[in-house]
Protein backbone atom coordinates (compact mmCIF):
# COMPACT_ATOMS: atom_id res chain seq x y z
CA UNK A 1 0.00 0.00 0.00
CA UNK A 2 1.57 3.28 -1.12
CA UNK A 3 1.56 6.23 1.26
CA UNK A 4 -0.37 9.16 -0.15
CA UNK A 5 0.94 12.64 0.66
CA UNK A 6 -0.96 14.35 3.46
CA UNK A 7 -3.14 17.28 2.41
CA UNK A 8 -2.11 20.38 4.40
CA UNK A 9 -4.77 22.72 3.04
CA UNK A 10 -6.88 24.94 5.29
CA UNK A 11 -9.04 28.07 5.02
CA UNK A 12 -6.58 30.86 5.72
CA UNK A 13 -8.76 33.92 5.07
CA UNK A 14 -11.76 32.50 6.91
CA UNK A 15 -9.58 31.60 9.91
CA UNK A 16 -8.03 35.07 10.01
CA UNK A 17 -11.41 36.80 9.67
CA UNK A 18 -12.91 34.86 12.57
CA UNK A 19 -9.89 35.22 14.85
CA UNK A 20 -9.59 38.95 14.21
CA UNK A 21 -13.28 39.57 14.61
CA UNK A 22 -13.68 37.65 17.87
CA UNK A 23 -10.53 38.75 19.68
CA UNK A 24 -10.63 42.53 19.37
CA UNK A 25 -8.88 43.44 16.14
CA UNK A 26 -12.14 44.48 14.49
CA UNK A 27 -12.53 47.44 16.86
CA UNK A 28 -8.84 48.31 16.99
CA UNK A 29 -7.85 46.51 20.22
CA UNK A 30 -4.41 45.36 19.03
CA UNK A 31 -3.16 44.56 22.52
CA UNK A 32 -5.92 42.04 23.13
CA UNK A 33 -5.35 40.38 19.77
CA UNK A 34 -1.58 40.22 20.36
CA UNK A 35 -2.11 38.44 23.67
CA UNK A 36 -4.54 36.04 22.02
CA UNK A 37 -1.97 35.23 19.33
CA UNK A 38 0.59 34.56 22.06
CA UNK A 39 -1.76 32.13 23.81
CA UNK A 40 -2.62 30.42 20.54
CA UNK A 41 1.08 30.04 19.68
CA UNK A 42 1.68 28.40 23.03
CA UNK A 43 -1.09 25.88 22.37
CA UNK A 44 0.22 25.22 18.85
CA UNK A 45 3.75 24.65 20.17
CA UNK A 46 2.47 22.16 22.69
CA UNK A 47 0.53 20.43 19.95
CA UNK A 48 3.51 20.20 17.59
CA UNK A 49 6.18 19.60 20.23
CA UNK A 50 8.14 22.70 19.21
CA UNK A 51 8.33 24.13 22.73
CA UNK A 52 11.00 26.32 24.26
CA UNK A 53 11.87 23.96 27.12
CA UNK A 54 10.50 23.38 30.63
CA UNK A 55 13.39 24.10 33.03
CA UNK A 56 15.45 26.62 31.10
CA UNK A 57 14.83 28.57 27.92
CA UNK A 58 15.70 26.73 24.77
CA UNK A 59 15.21 28.22 21.34
CA UNK A 60 12.45 26.24 19.61
CA UNK A 61 13.20 24.47 16.40
CA UNK A 62 12.39 26.36 13.25
CA UNK A 63 9.60 25.26 10.96
CA UNK A 64 11.00 24.12 7.63
CA UNK A 65 9.72 22.16 4.68
CA UNK A 66 11.23 18.98 6.06
CA UNK A 67 9.62 19.38 9.50
CA UNK A 68 6.15 20.26 8.28
CA UNK A 69 3.95 17.24 8.97
CA UNK A 70 0.70 18.85 10.06
CA UNK A 71 -1.42 21.92 9.43
CA UNK A 72 -0.48 23.15 12.91
CA UNK A 73 3.10 23.75 11.71
CA UNK A 74 1.80 26.14 9.06
CA UNK A 75 -0.55 27.81 11.53
CA UNK A 76 2.42 28.27 13.86
CA UNK A 77 4.10 30.44 11.24
CA UNK A 78 0.84 32.20 10.43
CA UNK A 79 0.10 33.28 13.99
CA UNK A 80 3.72 34.16 14.64
CA UNK A 81 3.36 36.66 11.82
CA UNK A 82 -0.01 37.78 13.20
CA UNK A 83 1.43 38.40 16.66
CA UNK A 84 4.30 40.45 15.26
CA UNK A 85 1.88 42.37 13.01
CA UNK A 86 -0.43 43.11 15.96
CA UNK A 87 2.57 44.35 17.96
CA UNK A 88 3.55 46.64 15.08
CA UNK A 89 0.02 48.04 14.80
CA UNK A 90 -0.13 48.54 18.57
CA UNK A 91 3.06 50.60 18.51
CA UNK A 92 1.83 52.57 15.50
CA UNK A 93 -1.40 53.38 17.30
CA UNK A 94 0.57 54.50 20.36
CA UNK A 95 2.74 56.81 18.23
CA UNK A 96 -0.33 58.56 16.79
CA UNK A 97 -1.63 59.59 20.22
CA UNK A 98 -1.19 63.18 21.43
CA UNK A 99 1.18 62.04 24.22
CA UNK A 100 2.99 58.91 22.98
CA UNK A 101 4.58 56.70 25.65
CA UNK A 102 8.28 57.11 26.39
CA UNK A 103 10.56 54.57 24.71
CA UNK A 104 8.31 53.86 21.72
CA UNK A 105 9.73 54.82 18.34
CA UNK A 106 9.07 54.33 14.65
CA UNK A 107 12.10 52.04 14.54
CA UNK A 108 10.47 49.58 16.97
CA UNK A 109 7.29 49.54 14.93
CA UNK A 110 9.16 48.79 11.69
CA UNK A 111 11.20 46.13 13.46
CA UNK A 112 8.08 44.19 14.41
CA UNK A 113 6.65 44.68 10.92
CA UNK A 114 9.84 43.27 9.35
CA UNK A 115 9.60 40.29 11.69
CA UNK A 116 6.00 39.67 10.58
CA UNK A 117 7.09 39.90 6.95
CA UNK A 118 9.87 37.38 7.62
CA UNK A 119 7.39 34.85 9.03
CA UNK A 120 5.01 35.36 6.11
CA UNK A 121 7.85 34.92 3.59
CA UNK A 122 8.82 31.63 5.23
CA UNK A 123 5.18 30.49 5.20
CA UNK A 124 4.80 31.44 1.54
CA UNK A 125 7.96 29.63 0.42
CA UNK A 126 7.00 26.43 2.29
CA UNK A 127 3.46 26.58 0.89
CA UNK A 128 4.74 27.00 -2.66
CA UNK A 129 6.86 23.87 -2.26
CA UNK A 130 3.93 21.95 -0.77
CA UNK A 131 1.64 23.01 -3.61
CA UNK A 132 4.16 21.91 -6.22
CA UNK A 133 4.28 18.45 -4.60
CA UNK A 134 0.44 18.23 -4.50
CA UNK A 135 0.30 18.47 -0.71
CA UNK A 136 -1.63 21.73 -0.78
CA UNK A 137 -4.43 23.08 -2.99
CA UNK A 138 -4.04 26.11 -5.17
CA UNK A 139 -6.72 27.86 -3.16
CA UNK A 140 -4.76 27.59 0.10
CA UNK A 141 -1.60 28.69 -1.68
CA UNK A 142 -3.42 31.69 -3.13
CA UNK A 143 -4.79 32.68 0.29
CA UNK A 144 -1.33 32.44 1.87
CA UNK A 145 0.05 34.47 -1.04
CA UNK A 146 -2.58 37.14 -0.39
CA UNK A 147 -1.52 37.28 3.24
CA UNK A 148 2.16 37.52 2.28
CA UNK A 149 1.44 40.31 -0.20
CA UNK A 150 -0.53 42.17 2.47
CA UNK A 151 2.47 42.29 4.78
CA UNK A 152 4.89 43.01 1.94
CA UNK A 153 2.82 45.97 0.70
CA UNK A 154 2.34 47.30 4.23
CA UNK A 155 6.10 47.20 4.85
CA UNK A 156 6.74 49.08 1.59
CA UNK A 157 4.00 51.54 2.54
CA UNK A 158 5.59 52.28 5.92
CA UNK A 159 8.94 52.81 4.21
CA UNK A 160 7.26 55.28 1.79
CA UNK A 161 8.15 53.04 -1.15
CA UNK A 162 4.93 53.84 -2.99
CA UNK A 163 5.71 52.08 -6.31
CA UNK A 164 6.49 48.70 -4.70
CA UNK A 165 3.52 49.05 -2.38
CA UNK A 166 1.01 49.76 -5.15
CA UNK A 167 2.38 46.88 -7.28
CA UNK A 168 2.03 44.36 -4.45
CA UNK A 169 -1.42 45.68 -3.67
CA UNK A 170 -2.46 45.34 -7.32
CA UNK A 171 -1.40 41.67 -7.39
CA UNK A 172 -3.17 41.08 -4.09
CA UNK A 173 -6.35 42.68 -5.39
CA UNK A 174 -6.20 40.59 -8.55
CA UNK A 175 -6.09 37.36 -6.55
CA UNK A 176 -8.96 38.50 -4.35
CA UNK A 177 -11.01 39.47 -7.41
CA UNK A 178 -10.45 35.96 -8.75
CA UNK A 179 -11.75 34.55 -5.47
CA UNK A 180 -14.80 36.83 -5.56
CA UNK A 181 -15.64 35.95 -9.16
CA UNK A 182 -15.21 32.21 -8.69
CA UNK A 183 -16.59 31.90 -5.17
CA UNK A 184 -18.94 28.95 -4.77
CA UNK A 185 -21.12 30.59 -2.14
CA UNK A 186 -21.98 34.05 -0.92
CA UNK A 187 -19.86 33.70 2.21
CA UNK A 188 -16.63 33.19 0.26
CA UNK A 189 -17.53 36.04 -2.05
CA UNK A 190 -18.14 38.43 0.84
CA UNK A 191 -14.94 37.23 2.51
CA UNK A 192 -12.92 38.14 -0.57
CA UNK A 193 -14.60 41.56 -0.76
CA UNK A 194 -13.93 42.12 2.94
CA UNK A 195 -10.18 41.54 2.55
CA UNK A 196 -10.18 43.59 -0.64
CA UNK A 197 -11.77 46.60 1.04
CA UNK A 198 -9.31 46.44 3.94
CA UNK A 199 -6.34 47.52 1.78
CA UNK A 200 -8.07 49.65 -0.88
CA UNK A 201 -7.33 52.88 1.04
CA UNK A 202 -3.61 52.08 0.81
CA UNK A 203 -3.92 51.88 -2.99
CA UNK A 204 -5.66 55.23 -3.08
CA UNK A 205 -3.08 56.91 -0.85
CA UNK A 206 -0.10 55.40 -2.70
CA UNK A 207 -1.56 56.54 -6.04
CA UNK A 208 -2.01 60.02 -4.60
CA UNK A 209 1.61 60.07 -3.45
CA UNK A 210 2.73 58.98 -6.93
CA UNK A 211 0.82 61.90 -8.45
CA UNK A 212 -1.89 59.86 -10.16
CA UNK A 213 -4.81 62.02 -11.22
CA UNK A 214 -7.21 59.07 -10.96
CA UNK A 215 -6.19 58.13 -7.40
CA UNK A 216 -9.86 57.96 -6.37
CA UNK A 217 -10.59 55.33 -9.05
CA UNK A 218 -9.02 52.16 -7.66
CA UNK A 219 -9.86 49.83 -10.61
CA UNK A 220 -8.23 52.33 -13.00
CA UNK A 221 -5.11 52.53 -10.84
CA UNK A 222 -4.81 48.75 -10.63
CA UNK A 223 -5.37 48.37 -14.39
CA UNK A 224 -2.24 50.44 -15.04
CA UNK A 225 -0.09 47.76 -13.37
CA UNK A 226 0.76 45.49 -16.32
CA UNK A 227 1.69 41.82 -16.24
CA UNK A 228 5.45 42.38 -16.18
CA UNK A 229 5.25 44.56 -13.09
CA UNK A 230 3.01 42.01 -11.38
CA UNK A 231 5.46 39.25 -12.30
CA UNK A 232 8.26 41.20 -10.66
CA UNK A 233 6.25 41.63 -7.47
CA UNK A 234 5.19 37.95 -7.39
CA UNK A 235 6.99 35.48 -9.69
CA UNK A 236 4.58 32.93 -11.12
CA UNK A 237 1.46 35.01 -10.60
CA UNK A 238 -0.06 34.08 -13.98
CA UNK A 239 0.38 30.38 -13.27
CA UNK A 240 -1.14 30.81 -9.84
CA UNK A 241 -4.20 32.65 -11.20
CA UNK A 242 -4.79 30.04 -13.90
CA UNK A 243 -4.43 27.19 -11.42
CA UNK A 244 -6.83 28.92 -9.04
CA UNK A 245 -9.42 29.43 -11.77
CA UNK A 246 -9.17 25.81 -12.85
CA UNK A 247 -9.48 24.53 -9.30
CA UNK A 248 -12.40 26.74 -8.38
CA UNK A 249 -14.21 26.13 -11.66
CA UNK A 250 -14.96 29.69 -12.70
CA UNK A 251 -17.16 28.53 -15.56
CA UNK A 252 -19.60 26.93 -13.13
CA UNK A 253 -19.70 29.82 -10.69
CA UNK A 254 -23.30 30.89 -11.39
CA UNK A 255 -24.68 27.50 -10.38
CA UNK A 256 -23.21 27.18 -6.93
CA UNK A 257 -22.54 30.69 -5.72
CA UNK A 258 -25.95 32.27 -5.32
CA UNK A 259 -27.07 30.83 -2.03
CA UNK A 260 -27.89 34.34 -0.91
CA UNK A 261 -30.52 35.93 -3.11
CA UNK A 262 -29.92 39.39 -4.47
CA UNK A 263 -30.80 42.01 -1.88
CA UNK A 264 -32.46 45.08 -3.38
CA UNK A 265 -34.13 48.14 -1.90
CA UNK A 266 -36.22 50.42 -4.12
CA UNK A 267 -34.64 48.84 -7.19
CA UNK A 268 -31.06 49.40 -5.98
CA UNK A 269 -28.80 46.53 -4.98
CA UNK A 270 -27.54 46.32 -1.38
CA UNK A 271 -24.06 44.86 -1.57
CA UNK A 272 -22.95 42.64 1.32
CA UNK A 273 -19.20 43.05 1.77
CA UNK A 274 -18.95 41.32 5.15
CA UNK A 275 -18.73 37.54 5.41
CA UNK A 276 -20.39 37.51 8.82
CA UNK A 277 -23.27 39.61 7.54
CA UNK A 278 -23.77 37.28 4.57
CA UNK A 279 -24.11 34.31 6.92
CA UNK A 280 -26.74 36.11 8.99
CA UNK A 281 -28.71 37.24 5.92
CA UNK A 282 -28.73 33.66 4.63
CA UNK A 283 -30.48 32.60 7.84
CA UNK A 284 -32.95 35.48 7.46
CA UNK A 285 -33.89 34.49 3.92
CA UNK A 286 -34.25 30.84 4.95
CA UNK A 287 -36.60 31.81 7.81
CA UNK A 288 -38.68 34.00 5.51
CA UNK A 289 -38.99 31.23 2.93
CA UNK A 290 -40.00 28.74 5.62
CA UNK A 291 -42.69 31.12 6.90
CA UNK A 292 -44.14 31.55 3.40
CA UNK A 293 -44.16 27.79 2.85
CA UNK A 294 -45.91 26.90 6.11
CA UNK A 295 -48.34 29.77 6.26
CA UNK A 296 -48.39 32.93 8.30
CA UNK A 297 -48.81 31.54 11.79
CA UNK A 298 -47.63 33.37 14.89
CA UNK A 299 -44.74 30.93 15.32
CA UNK A 300 -43.48 31.74 11.85
CA UNK A 301 -43.68 35.47 12.56
CA UNK A 302 -41.89 35.09 15.89
CA UNK A 303 -39.11 33.05 14.29
CA UNK A 304 -38.56 35.59 11.52
CA UNK A 305 -38.59 38.49 13.97
CA UNK A 306 -36.11 36.64 16.18
CA UNK A 307 -33.72 35.99 13.30
CA UNK A 308 -34.06 39.60 12.12
CA UNK A 309 -33.36 40.82 15.65
CA UNK A 310 -30.15 38.77 15.75
CA UNK A 311 -29.16 40.08 12.32
CA UNK A 312 -29.76 43.68 13.44
CA UNK A 313 -27.60 43.13 16.52
CA UNK A 314 -24.77 41.71 14.39
CA UNK A 315 -25.04 44.56 11.88
CA UNK A 316 -25.04 47.17 14.64
CA UNK A 317 -21.98 45.58 16.23
CA UNK A 318 -20.15 45.54 12.90
CA UNK A 319 -20.94 49.21 12.31
CA UNK A 320 -19.85 50.18 15.83
CA UNK A 321 -16.62 48.18 15.55
CA UNK A 322 -15.85 49.71 12.18
CA UNK A 323 -16.42 53.21 13.54
CA UNK A 324 -14.33 52.45 16.63
CA UNK A 325 -11.42 51.30 14.49
CA UNK A 326 -11.18 54.77 12.93
CA UNK A 327 -8.80 55.98 15.65
CA UNK A 328 -6.24 53.26 14.96
CA UNK A 329 -6.84 53.00 11.22
CA UNK A 330 -7.64 56.38 9.64
CA UNK A 331 -7.38 54.86 6.13
CA UNK A 332 -10.64 53.01 6.31
CA UNK A 333 -12.44 51.79 3.25
CA UNK A 334 -15.30 54.07 2.23
CA UNK A 335 -17.02 51.18 0.44
CA UNK A 336 -16.97 49.07 3.59
CA UNK A 337 -18.39 51.92 5.66
CA UNK A 338 -21.16 52.60 3.15
CA UNK A 339 -21.95 48.89 2.75
CA UNK A 340 -22.18 48.28 6.49
CA UNK A 341 -24.39 51.34 7.04
CA UNK A 342 -26.75 50.43 4.19
CA UNK A 343 -26.95 46.81 5.29
CA UNK A 344 -27.71 47.81 8.87
CA UNK A 345 -30.50 50.17 7.82
CA UNK A 346 -31.90 47.60 5.39
CA UNK A 347 -32.10 45.00 8.16
CA UNK A 348 -33.80 47.52 10.45
CA UNK A 349 -36.31 48.23 7.66
CA UNK A 350 -36.97 44.50 7.27
CA UNK A 351 -37.39 44.06 11.03
CA UNK A 352 -39.82 46.96 11.38
CA UNK A 353 -41.76 45.94 8.26
CA UNK A 354 -42.34 42.41 9.55
CA UNK A 355 -43.20 43.75 12.99
CA UNK A 356 -45.84 46.04 11.44
CA UNK A 357 -47.33 43.18 9.45
CA UNK A 358 -47.43 40.97 12.54
CA UNK A 359 -49.19 43.67 14.59
CA UNK A 360 -51.72 44.29 11.82
CA UNK A 361 -52.43 40.55 11.66
CA UNK A 362 -52.99 40.49 15.42
CA UNK A 363 -55.31 43.49 15.17
CA UNK A 364 -57.33 41.86 12.39
CA UNK A 365 -57.58 38.64 14.37
CA UNK A 366 -58.76 40.49 17.48
CA UNK A 367 -61.31 42.47 15.47
CA UNK A 368 -62.72 39.38 13.76
CA UNK A 369 -62.97 37.28 16.93
CA UNK A 370 -64.65 39.98 19.02
CA UNK A 371 -68.41 39.43 19.33
CA UNK A 372 -69.21 42.26 21.70
CA UNK A 373 -68.56 45.24 19.43
CA UNK A 374 -71.64 46.24 17.42
CA UNK A 375 -71.24 45.75 13.70
CA UNK A 376 -72.94 49.10 13.15
CA UNK A 377 -70.46 51.80 14.05
CA UNK A 378 -73.22 54.31 14.78
CA UNK A 379 -74.70 52.18 17.58
CA UNK A 380 -73.42 53.34 20.95
CA UNK A 381 -75.28 50.88 23.12
CA UNK A 382 -73.63 47.50 23.64
CA UNK A 383 -76.22 44.78 24.20
CA UNK A 384 -75.61 42.25 26.94
CA UNK A 385 -75.26 44.35 30.03
CA UNK A 386 -72.29 45.66 31.94
CA UNK A 387 -70.04 42.60 31.33
CA UNK A 388 -70.38 42.86 27.56
CA UNK A 389 -69.74 46.60 27.72
CA UNK A 390 -66.51 46.08 29.67
CA UNK A 391 -65.41 43.42 27.18
CA UNK A 392 -66.07 45.79 24.26
CA UNK A 393 -64.08 48.55 25.96
CA UNK A 394 -61.15 46.16 26.51
CA UNK A 395 -61.30 45.06 22.87
CA UNK A 396 -61.12 48.64 21.62
CA UNK A 397 -58.29 49.41 24.05
CA UNK A 398 -56.35 46.39 22.76
CA UNK A 399 -56.88 47.47 19.14
CA UNK A 400 -55.71 50.99 19.93
CA UNK A 401 -52.57 49.63 21.59
CA UNK A 402 -51.73 47.44 18.59
CA UNK A 403 -52.21 50.30 16.14
CA UNK A 404 -50.08 52.56 18.35
CA UNK A 405 -47.27 50.00 18.00
CA UNK A 406 -47.78 50.11 14.24
CA UNK A 407 -47.51 53.91 14.27
CA UNK A 408 -44.37 53.75 16.40
CA UNK A 409 -42.74 51.32 13.95
CA UNK A 410 -43.78 53.50 11.00
CA UNK A 411 -42.17 56.50 12.67
CA UNK A 412 -38.91 54.57 13.05
CA UNK A 413 -39.05 53.49 9.41
CA UNK A 414 -39.59 57.08 8.29
CA UNK A 415 -36.54 58.17 10.27
CA UNK A 416 -34.14 55.78 8.48
CA UNK A 417 -31.63 57.45 6.18
CA UNK A 418 -32.25 54.72 3.61
CA UNK A 419 -35.89 55.85 3.44
CA UNK A 420 -35.27 59.59 3.63
CA UNK A 421 -32.94 59.46 0.62
CA UNK A 422 -35.64 57.92 -1.61
CA UNK A 423 -38.71 60.06 -2.23
CA UNK A 424 -40.87 57.22 -3.55
CA UNK A 425 -40.31 55.24 -0.35
CA UNK A 426 -40.68 58.13 2.10
CA UNK A 427 -43.99 59.31 0.62
CA UNK A 428 -45.45 55.82 0.93
CA UNK A 429 -44.43 55.54 4.59
CA UNK A 430 -45.96 58.95 5.36
CA UNK A 431 -49.18 57.94 3.63
CA UNK A 432 -49.43 54.74 5.68
CA UNK A 433 -48.70 56.71 8.84
CA UNK A 434 -51.59 59.10 8.11
CA UNK A 435 -53.89 56.18 7.22
CA UNK A 436 -53.27 54.20 10.41
CA UNK A 437 -53.31 57.30 12.58
CA UNK A 438 -56.79 58.06 11.26
CA UNK A 439 -57.76 54.42 11.87
CA UNK A 440 -56.36 53.80 15.32
CA UNK A 441 -55.63 56.92 17.26
CA UNK A 442 -58.70 58.76 16.02
CA UNK A 443 -61.46 56.47 14.75
CA UNK A 444 -61.06 53.70 17.34
CA UNK A 445 -60.43 56.15 20.15
CA UNK A 446 -63.49 58.19 19.12
CA UNK A 447 -65.58 55.02 19.12
CA UNK A 448 -64.24 54.21 22.58
CA UNK A 449 -65.40 57.66 23.74
CA UNK A 450 -68.91 57.01 22.41
CA UNK A 451 -69.52 53.54 23.91
CA UNK A 452 -67.84 54.23 27.25
CA UNK A 453 -70.12 54.19 30.33
CA UNK A 454 -69.37 57.92 30.71
CA UNK A 455 -69.30 59.01 27.07
CA UNK A 456 -67.55 62.14 25.81
CA UNK A 457 -69.12 62.98 22.47
CA UNK A 458 -67.29 66.28 22.15
CA UNK A 459 -63.90 64.53 22.37
CA UNK A 460 -65.03 62.01 19.75
CA UNK A 461 -66.07 64.80 17.38
CA UNK A 462 -62.70 66.53 17.70
CA UNK A 463 -60.86 63.27 16.96
CA UNK A 464 -63.04 62.56 13.94
CA UNK A 465 -62.51 66.06 12.55
CA UNK A 466 -58.77 65.39 12.67
CA UNK A 467 -59.31 62.02 10.97
CA UNK A 468 -60.87 63.68 7.93
CA UNK A 469 -57.72 65.68 7.21
CA UNK A 470 -55.54 62.60 7.81
CA UNK A 471 -57.47 60.56 5.26
CA UNK A 472 -56.96 63.33 2.70
CA UNK A 473 -53.20 63.27 3.38
CA UNK A 474 -53.18 59.48 3.05
CA UNK A 475 -55.03 59.60 -0.28
CA UNK A 476 -52.66 62.25 -1.62
CA UNK A 477 -49.53 60.31 -0.59
CA UNK A 478 -50.61 56.79 -1.52
CA UNK A 479 -52.62 57.25 -4.70
CA UNK A 480 -51.97 60.67 -6.23
CA UNK A 481 -48.16 61.06 -6.15
CA UNK A 482 -47.24 58.08 -8.31
CA UNK A 483 -46.08 54.51 -7.68
CA UNK A 484 -44.84 53.65 -4.19
CA UNK A 485 -41.57 51.73 -3.81
CA UNK A 486 -41.05 49.13 -1.07
CA UNK A 487 -44.68 49.04 0.17
CA UNK A 488 -44.85 47.85 3.77
CA UNK A 489 -48.47 46.75 3.61
CA UNK A 490 -51.33 47.06 1.17
CA UNK A 491 -53.81 49.91 1.67
CA UNK A 492 -56.18 50.16 -1.29
CA UNK A 493 -58.46 52.99 -2.32
CA UNK A 494 -61.42 50.81 -1.33
CA UNK A 495 -60.10 50.57 2.23
CA UNK A 496 -59.55 54.31 2.35
CA UNK A 497 -63.05 55.03 1.04
CA UNK A 498 -64.56 52.67 3.62
CA UNK A 499 -62.57 54.44 6.34
CA UNK A 500 -63.84 57.84 5.19
CA UNK A 501 -67.46 56.63 5.22
CA UNK A 502 -67.05 55.19 8.73
CA UNK A 503 -65.57 58.47 9.96
CA UNK A 504 -68.41 60.49 8.43
CA UNK A 505 -71.10 58.18 9.82
CA UNK A 506 -69.61 58.12 13.32
CA UNK A 507 -69.15 61.89 13.33
CA UNK A 508 -72.82 62.49 12.43
CA UNK A 509 -73.98 60.03 15.08
CA UNK A 510 -71.74 61.62 17.72
CA UNK A 511 -73.08 65.09 16.88
CA UNK A 512 -76.69 63.88 17.14
CA UNK A 513 -75.92 62.27 20.50
CA UNK A 514 -74.17 65.44 21.72
CA UNK A 515 -77.14 67.67 20.77
CA UNK A 516 -79.62 65.23 22.26
CA UNK A 517 -77.68 65.02 25.51
CA UNK A 518 -79.35 66.91 28.40
CA UNK A 519 -76.98 68.81 30.62
CA UNK A 520 -78.30 70.11 33.94
CA UNK A 521 -77.25 73.73 34.26
CA UNK A 522 -76.26 74.98 37.75
CA UNK A 523 -78.86 77.19 39.46
CA UNK A 524 -78.15 80.81 40.30
CA UNK A 525 -77.89 79.89 43.98
CA UNK A 526 -74.70 77.85 43.26
CA UNK A 527 -73.07 80.78 41.47
CA UNK A 528 -74.16 83.40 44.00
CA UNK A 529 -72.82 81.29 46.88
CA UNK A 530 -69.31 82.42 45.99
CA UNK A 531 -70.12 86.14 46.35
CA UNK A 532 -72.94 86.50 48.99
CA UNK A 533 -72.57 85.51 52.64
CA UNK A 534 -75.17 82.91 53.48
CA UNK A 535 -77.33 83.39 56.57
CA UNK A 536 -76.74 79.89 57.89
CA UNK A 537 -78.19 80.54 61.36
CA UNK A 538 -81.43 81.82 59.82
CA UNK A 539 -81.62 78.81 57.50
CA UNK A 540 -81.08 76.39 60.39
CA UNK A 541 -83.81 78.12 62.40
CA UNK A 542 -86.27 78.05 59.50
CA UNK A 543 -85.57 74.36 59.02
CA UNK A 544 -86.51 73.78 62.62
CA UNK A 545 -83.12 72.50 63.64
CA UNK A 546 -81.86 75.35 65.80
CA UNK A 547 -82.77 78.36 67.97
CA UNK A 548 -83.81 81.71 66.62
CA UNK A 549 -80.80 83.94 65.87
CA UNK A 550 -80.42 87.17 67.86
CA UNK A 551 -81.72 90.27 66.09
CA UNK A 552 -79.25 93.11 65.43
CA UNK A 553 -79.53 96.22 67.71
CA UNK A 554 -80.11 98.62 64.78
CA UNK A 555 -81.42 97.98 61.35
CA UNK A 556 -78.60 100.08 59.99
CA UNK A 557 -75.97 98.45 62.18
CA UNK A 558 -73.94 97.27 59.24
CA UNK A 559 -74.00 100.69 57.59
CA UNK A 560 -73.09 102.45 60.85
CA UNK A 561 -70.13 100.17 61.39
CA UNK A 562 -68.87 100.84 57.91
CA UNK A 563 -69.27 104.59 58.41
CA UNK A 564 -67.31 104.43 61.65
CA UNK A 565 -64.42 102.62 59.98
CA UNK A 566 -64.41 105.11 57.12
CA UNK A 567 -64.29 108.02 59.62
CA UNK A 568 -61.32 106.55 61.45
CA UNK A 569 -59.38 106.13 58.21
CA UNK A 570 -60.14 109.70 57.13
CA UNK A 571 -58.98 111.07 60.55
CA UNK A 572 -55.65 109.26 60.29
CA UNK A 573 -55.02 110.64 56.79
CA UNK A 574 -55.81 114.23 58.00
CA UNK A 575 -53.31 113.93 60.89
CA UNK A 576 -50.57 112.66 58.58
CA UNK A 577 -51.19 115.56 56.16
CA UNK A 578 -50.96 118.13 59.00
CA UNK A 579 -47.61 116.71 60.18
CA UNK A 580 -46.18 116.95 56.65
CA UNK A 581 -47.19 120.64 56.42
CA UNK A 582 -45.55 121.49 59.77
CA UNK A 583 -42.35 119.72 58.77
CA UNK A 584 -42.34 121.61 55.46
CA UNK A 585 -42.18 124.99 57.26
CA UNK A 586 -38.62 124.34 58.52
CA UNK A 587 -35.40 125.09 56.69
CA UNK A 588 -35.69 125.46 52.94
CA UNK A 589 -33.09 125.95 50.26
CA UNK A 590 -29.44 126.91 50.94
CA UNK A 591 -28.22 128.49 54.24
CA UNK A 592 -31.38 127.93 56.19
CA UNK A 593 -33.72 129.21 53.51
CA UNK A 594 -32.24 132.66 52.81
CA UNK A 595 -32.41 132.05 49.10
CA UNK A 596 -35.65 130.15 49.25
CA UNK A 597 -37.95 132.97 50.43
CA UNK A 598 -39.95 134.91 47.94
UniProtKB/TrEMBL annotation:
Which Gene Ontology MF annotations are present? 7S RNA binding; endoplasmic reticulum signal peptide binding; signal recognition particle binding
One GO CC annotation: nucleolus
* Taxonomic superkingdom: Eukaryota
Indicate the principal place this protein occupies in or around the cell: cytoplasm
Q: Where in the cell is it found?
A: Cytoplasm; Nucleus, Nucleolus
What GO biological process term is on the record, naming one? SRP-dependent cotranslational protein targeting to membrane
User: What keywords tag this UniProt record?
Assistant: Cytoplasm, Nucleus, Ribonucleoprotein, RNA-binding, Signal recognition particle
Q: Does the record's keyword annotation contain RNA-binding?
A: yes
What PANTHER family does the annotation carry?
Answer: SIGNAL RECOGNITION PARTICLE 68 KDA PROTEIN, SIGNAL RECOGNITION PARTICLE SUBUNIT SRP68
User: Tell me, what does this protein do in biology?
Assistant: Component of the signal recognition particle (SRP) complex, a ribonucleoprotein complex that mediates the cotranslational targeting of secretory and membrane proteins to the endoplasmic reticulum (ER). The SRP complex interacts with the signal sequence in nascent secretory and membrane proteins and directs them to the membrane of the ER.
What's this protein's family per the entry? Belongs to the SRP68 family.
The identity of this protein, by name, is: Signal recognition particle subunit SRP68
Q: Please name the taxonomic classification of the source.
A: Eukaryota, Fungi, Dikarya, Basidiomycota, Agaricomycotina
Amino acid sequence: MSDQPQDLSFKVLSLLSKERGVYGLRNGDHERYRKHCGNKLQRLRHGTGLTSGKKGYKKPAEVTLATVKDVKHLQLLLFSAERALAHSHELKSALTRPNPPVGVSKKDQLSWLRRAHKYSSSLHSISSALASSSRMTQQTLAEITIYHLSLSSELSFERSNWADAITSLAVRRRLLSTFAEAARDSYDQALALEFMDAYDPLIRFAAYKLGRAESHDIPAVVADIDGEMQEEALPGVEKLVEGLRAELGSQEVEEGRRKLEDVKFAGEAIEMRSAEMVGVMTKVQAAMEAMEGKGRGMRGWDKVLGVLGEAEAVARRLVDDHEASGASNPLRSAETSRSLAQTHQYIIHLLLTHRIRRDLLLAETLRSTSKTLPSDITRFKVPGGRAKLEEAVKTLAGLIKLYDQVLQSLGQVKGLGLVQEREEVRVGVEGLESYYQATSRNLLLARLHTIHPTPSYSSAIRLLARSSSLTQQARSSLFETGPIAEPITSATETDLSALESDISALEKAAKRALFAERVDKPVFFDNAFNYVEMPMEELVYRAGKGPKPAAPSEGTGGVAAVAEVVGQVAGKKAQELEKEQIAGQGKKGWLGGWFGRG
